[in-house]
Amino acid sequence: MKNRLPSWFRQELPDADVKETARILSESRVNTVCRQAKCPNAGACFKDKKVTFLILGNICTRSCLFCNVTGYAATPLSVDTGEPQRVARAIKLLGLSYAVVTSVTRDDLLDGGAEFFAETISWIRRINNGSVKVEALIPDFQGNPESLGKVVNAHPDLIGHNIETVKRLYPAVRPGADYQRCLELLRRVKLLDASIPTKSSLMLGMGERKEEVAQTMKDLRDSLCDCLYLGQYLAPSLRHYPVREFLTLQQFEEYRIVAGAMGFKAVLCAPLARSSYRAENIYRELQNV
Q1: Of 32, 93, 151, 236, which residue is least crowded by CB atoms under 10 Å?
Q2: What pLDDT, on the 0 to 100 scale, is given for residue 1?
Q3: CB within 8 Å of 257: residues ≥ 6 apart
Q4: Which of the listed CATH numbers 3.90.930.50, 3.20.20.70, 3.20.20.140, 3.40.50.10950 matches domain 7-287?
Q5: What are the pLDDT digits (tens) for 166-184?
């Protein structure tokens, strides 16, 4: 069958370690993109106590056709002011040394939730005595430079923003986003603080062409992006944008070679690669470049 999952997507059944991580997260009343987005790596990451926290609620104000974290509210959504502290305490309970914090896109907020990111980063460091490295995987804040400045001024250890797909597919896949705006955000991070490493990710198998992938890589490098993830797109349901192709391992290896030749300092190119998968390992790799 054309859309049959390749064998490398098979996952192990949850064990006691996975269930313990899930219990802590549930009792802490925090959201994770691991579950909200139906990430195929959730079990493996939970087993190793690797978590990507989802702040600003679990309903997005955009409806990207590739994402399971979608929704729309006719009136502005409330903000849970206790969420940053709960995330920080969950990190302490889990004993994490590296935490990834992302969010739904909140176009209903004046700053897109940037101040909430900064507050969450502050609470993580306060409750964990500064021992935890924090990666902020941020939305585009509708291109607002002041919002981005709030996150940069919180001094996360890495800032990520996902380009997701090639420029041609944006109207069909990401109608609420803008390709150039994503690139400009990554470039602006470096203008505000050149010491903060940046990363982005690209989903493959949505109908993109090889030359388009190569151009997107070049655009990201021209925007001073340090790290690149390339992974296989998996449709969360039949209602989402369909998978057009399952790439082979050889195709992923070819893209990895191209990305390395372009000068990315770290590249993770594999079917199961997601923007926060093995995030701590990639961060350490960047530090050793």
Answers
A1: 93
A2: 42
A3: none
A4: 3.20.20.70
A5: 999 999 999 889 999 999 9
